[in-house]
């Protein structure tokens, strides 16, 4: 079983996102109260709020950490049509706040004309790059040319996706065989338009991103999307949170040596689960891509794992109050089959939570309503 703990977050409105840093020792939360809070994990495993500040003039939808090699850096996005980059600095020796850290705004990105719905840093091997997507259907990719000066960001790419964008995910693969790639999901409610997930790939010849694939079978609103860590695979695995949980395999087709267009993929759907019986709000992979967690309006986090035949099954159901749930076999679902010290959750997680580690004590947060459903957490928390 697992232990559920609550954290008195003290946000004044709904919490929309929770994000862990690279090491899982810090987390950030954002809310409709227009603020971001940063939490640090103490030696005894308790979470303490070490910073809280007003970040935007509207609801803050998402918050995310940069890789620590770039410092302690956060990005946030909001209904106020902006994204912002924040950096933690430590007070100088002659400062009244000597040794104390505080967060300062390095830049505000104001290119969007509508709500900025997601913000993600690109994989670190690409440098310090930040991607946003907006309700106007535009994905924007920014780069900080000088990582020592985070007040300077240049808009490198502007990609129109035609449909309102709700979420983005970078393919984390650093293989030279795989060009830079990201997926974008749409929450457009018109089911007559298929292809709510689009895959874009960087073309070295044109130096632009081009659409490589559209998942036409996804016709319902997409709330979250997550590429699995690659670990040397020749193909890509993509999880999608819509009215159910779906896992796709994207197998690159062999390219002609003279071809200059984007890679063509053979798209296979390897799993589809409607166990939540409701909208699914977040999907998140562990660090080895062997375990997927999803959260939905049923108030549960469900864990999915594939066997050696690549058949995916539910291996655990987590409820926010820590009570056991009965699985389809009639037996209480136990965590012992999936939780171990070697299993670690991915960086960004279930409706809000970016991942911490799945440890011997279960680390999953309880579900939040709608925009604030649960995510993988170091220690469960109620908001």
Automatic annotation (TrEMBL):
Q: What is its main location?
A: nucleus
Pfam families named in the record: WD40
**WD repeat residue intervals:** 8-40, 273-305
Q: Which PROSITE patterns match?
A: WD_REPEATS_2, WD_REPEATS_REGION
Q: Which GO terms describe its cellular component?
A: kinetochore; lysosomal membrane; nuclear pore outer ring; Seh1-associated complex
Transmembrane helix recorded as keyword: no
Q: Keyword annotations for this protein?
A: Cell cycle, Cell division, Centromere, Chromosome partition, Kinetochore, Lysosome, Mitosis, mRNA transport, Nuclear pore complex, Nucleus, Protein transport, Repeat, Translocation, Transport, WD repeat
* Compartments, as annotated in UniProt: Chromosome, Centromere, Kinetochore; Lysosome membrane; Nucleus, Nuclear pore complex
Q: Which GO terms describe its molecular function?
A: structural molecule activity
Listed Gene3D superfamilies? YVTN repeat-like/Quinoprotein amine dehydrogenase
The biological process GO terms on file are: cell division; cellular response to amino acid starvation; chromosome segregation; positive regulation of TORC1 signaling; protein transport
Q: Which PANTHER family match?
A: NUCLEAR PORE COMPLEX PROTEIN SEC13 / SEH1 FAMILY MEMBER, NUCLEOPORIN SEH1
- Its job: Component of the Nup107-160 subcomplex of the nuclear pore complex (NPC). The Nup107-160 subcomplex is required for the assembly of a functional NPC. The Nup107-160 subcomplex is also required for normal kinetochore microtubule attachment, mitotic progression and chromosome segregation. This subunit plays a role in recruitment of the Nup107-160 subcomplex to the kinetochore.
Similarity annotation = Belongs to the WD repeat SEC13 family.
The protein's name: SEH1 like nucleoporin
Q: Which organism is it from?
A: Dicentrarchus labrax
Q: What is the lineage of its organism?
A: Eukaryota, Metazoa, Chordata, Craniata, Vertebrata
């Amino acid at each position: 079983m697992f232990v559920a703990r609550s954290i008195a977050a003290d946000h004044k409105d709904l919490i929309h996102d929770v994000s862990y840093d690279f090491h899982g020792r810090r987390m950030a939360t954002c809310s409709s109260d227009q603020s971001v809070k940063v939490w640090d994990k103490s030696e005894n495993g308790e979470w303490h709020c070490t910073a809280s500040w007003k970040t935007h003039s509207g609801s803050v939808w998402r918050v995310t950490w940069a890789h620590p090699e770039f410092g302690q850096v956060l990005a946030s996005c909001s209904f106020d049509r902006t994204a912002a980059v924040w950096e933690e600095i430590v007070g100088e020796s002659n400062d009244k706040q000597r040794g104390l850290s505080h967060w300062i705004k390095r830049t505000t990105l104001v290119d969007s004309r509508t709500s900025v719905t997601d913000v993600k840093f690109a994989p670190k091997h690409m440098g310090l790059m930040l991607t946003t997507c907006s309700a106007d259907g535009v994905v924007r990719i920014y780069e900080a040319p000088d990582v020592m000066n985070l007040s300077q960001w240049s808009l490198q790419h502007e990609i129109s996706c035609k449909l309102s964008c709700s979420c983005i995910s970078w393919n984390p693969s650093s293989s030279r065989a795989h060009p830079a790639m990201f997926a974008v999901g749409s929450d457009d409610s018109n089911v007559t338009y298929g292809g709510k997930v689009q895959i874009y790939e960087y073309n070295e010849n044109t130096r632009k991103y081009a659409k490589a694939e559209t998942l036409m079978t996804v016709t319902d609103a997409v709330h979250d999307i997550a590429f699995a860590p690659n670990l040397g695979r020749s193909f890509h695995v993509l999880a999608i949170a819509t009215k159910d949980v779906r896992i796709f395999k994207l197998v690159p087709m062999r390219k002609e040596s003279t071809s200059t267009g984007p890679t063509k993929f053979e798209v296979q759907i390897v799993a589809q689960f409607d166990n939540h019986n409701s909208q699914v709000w977040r999907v998140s992979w562990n660090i080895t891509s062997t375990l997927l967690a999803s959260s939905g309006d049923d108030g549960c986090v469900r864990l999915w794992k594939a066997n050696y035949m690549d058949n995916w099954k539910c291996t655990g159901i987590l409820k926010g109050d820590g009570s056991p749930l009965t699985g389809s076999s009639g037996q209480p679902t136990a965590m012992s089959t999936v939780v171990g010290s070697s299993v670690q959750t991915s960086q960004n997680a279930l409706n809000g939570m970016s991942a911490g580690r799945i440890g011997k004590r279960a680390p999953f947060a309880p579900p939040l309503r709608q925009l604030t459903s649960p995510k993988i957490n170091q220690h469960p928390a109620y908001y």
